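Checklist before submission:
- one chain only
- standard amino acids only
- sequence pasted in full

Submission:
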Amino acid sequence: MRGTNPIRAPILDDGLQLEVKSIFPTLQGEGPFTGHPAVFVRLGGCNLACSFCDTDFEGFRAIPTPVIVENVGSVSCEHGKRVRHLVVITGGEPLRQNIVPLCEALLAEGFKVQIETNGTLWRELPEGVDIVCSPKNTGGGYFPIREDLLPRVTALKFIISKRDENYNHVGEVGQGLCPIPVYVQPMDEYDAARNAENLAYASELAQQHGYRLSLQLHKILGIE
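Returned file contents:
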């Protein structure tokens, strides 16, 4: 959305339906589960508006949670056999909505569940959900990860730009208190020269500080 999206407030309800942009099979392209066949549940709306955001999460519709689970089960299979065991709940910002019933239902169906969040919101998610947090810097520094979320975070993913002062470093967002793996991912600035600079710079940061390099595999492969 590149910062053009409306900033949407959290929804306080029972989670029996969710605002969904799309549900689709793919490969997880980023972070600790890179390369895993997955089903993405892209939820609508976000509580932030980041200028570099490369995802369209508006134009969503309300879908009952049992229908979402049914759709996930359908697209997880090929020739009648489940081949995608990972479900990634993303957005937008998934914790803007009550995804607890969805997570519980997916876990009960035997799926591994991962969410991708900006770390500013929290829900009491069931055990077994992997939380990948990508902290955001809107110009006043990085938002610290909420204290109730921090102990549950599986990995941190920092977007890296060599030229953007807000994103040319890995900020302290609470990882000094918890041993959380840190991934650095080159920002896609839709400019080949800048993207090459960002890749080289992120690689340099990874080698200097012991971070893990994350590339957007889905863009390399030309898939969603």
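Reviewer check: The helical segments are 65-75, 100-108, 192-209, 217-221.
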